[in-house]
């Protein structure tokens, strides 16, 4: 059973998040987490019970922050600009260097999903909750199109397509390490999804 925290939990969770984000859940050991947080391994076990529980607490913090940033990135009044802002935020986040300039941070949720064999149900549910929240925010924004602009798909279908593409560009970033390529892909999707008066006149 988890015990009382004898350390600064908010600081420890931030430090643990960086380790999980860099290495992924499966490849991270409790010893590495103890070294990164400055908290003895026994104290981590006492506080959280096991690595999975600690990860789920970290992921809860990550999910809250991720969805807030998604909502903020979509606040621009015109849908194409809002979607470009969204992709720019996601691409900037996943291409941050870690450990060395040759290594980038990627996406914690996607890295966990693809790199964890026999994923435990609580972890799968946590990732699904993040993706479902992402999709709901997109549906809300895409349901408020500016005058003259038209979405070529129903908002739920467009939102699901966007979420799916964001998972794919994480993989493409790992392979190509080319943010410009990712932006071109995002722009192509936006052009396919949103019809604007300017494009109609053209």
Describe the structure.
The protein is mainly alpha-helical and 202 residues long. It has a domain at 60-195: Tetracycline Repressor, domain 2 (Orthogonal Bundle). Helix content is 70%, strand content 5%. The protein contains 10 helices and 4 strands. The strands form 2 sheets. It has a two-stranded antiparallel ribbon with strand order 1-2. A hairpin with a 1-residue loop joins β1 and β2. α8 (155-176) packs antiparallel against α9. It is elongated, with a radius of gyration of 19 Å. The termini are far apart. The mean pLDDT is 91.
What's the arrangement of secondary structure elements?
Layout: H1 9-23, H2 30-37, H3 41-48, H4 51-73, H5 79-94, E1 97-98, E2 100-104, H6 108-115, H7 121-142, E3 150-151, H8 155-176, H9 179-193, E4 194-195, H10 197-201
Helix pairs in contact: 1-2, 1-4, 4-7, 5-8, 5-9, 7-8, 8-9
Straight-line N-to-C gap: 65 Å
Please state roughly what percent of the residues sit in beta strands, choosing from under 5%, 5-15%, 15-25%, 25-35%, 35-45% or over 45%.
Answer: 5-15%
| Annotation, overall tally of beta strands | 4
| Element pattern in H and E | HHHHHEEHHEHHEH
Tell me the major beta sheet: 2 strands, antiparallel
Shape: elongated
Query: Rounded to an integer, what's the Rg over CA atoms?
Result: 19 Å
By CATH reckoning, the class of the domain at 60-195 would read Mainly Alpha
What is the averaged pLDDT score?
91
Structural class determined from secondary elements: mainly alpha
Query: Helical content, roughly?
Result: over 70%
Tell me the strand order in the biggest sheet: 1-2
Q: In the CATH scheme, what's the topology name of the domain at 60-195?
A: Tetracycline Repressor, domain 2
The helix tally amounts to 10
CATH H-tier superfamily of the domain at 60-195:
Tetracycline Repressor, domain 2
Question: What's the CATH architecture of the domain at 60-195?
Answer: Orthogonal Bundle
- What ranges have pLDDT less than 50 throughout 5 or more consecutive residues? none
């Amino acid at each position: 059973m988890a015990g009382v925290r004898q350390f600064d939990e908010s600081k420890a969770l931030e430090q643990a998040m960086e380790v999980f984000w860099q290495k992924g859940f499966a490849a991270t050991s409790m010893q590495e987490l103890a070294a990164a947080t400055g908290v003895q391994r026994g104290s981590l076990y006492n506080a959280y019970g096991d690595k999975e529980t600690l990860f789920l607490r970290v992921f809860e913090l990550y999910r809250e922050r991720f969805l807030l940033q998604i909502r903020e990135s979509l606040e621009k009044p015109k849908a194409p600009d809002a979607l470009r802002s969204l992709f720019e935020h996601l691409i900037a986040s996943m291409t941050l260097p870690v450990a060395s300039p040759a290594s980038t941070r990627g996406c914690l949720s996607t890295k966990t999903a693809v790199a964890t064999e026999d994923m435990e149900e609580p972890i799968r549910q946590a990732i699904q909750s993040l993706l479902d929240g992402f999709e709901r925010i997109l549906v809300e924004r895409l349901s408020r199109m500016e005058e003259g602009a038209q979405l070529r798909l129903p908002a739920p279908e467009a939102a699901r397509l966007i979420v799916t593409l964001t998972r794919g560009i994480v993989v493409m970033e790992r392979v190509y390490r080319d943010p410009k390529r990712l932006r071109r892909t995002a722009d192509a999707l936006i052009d396919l999804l949103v019809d604007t008066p300017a494009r109609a006149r053209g």
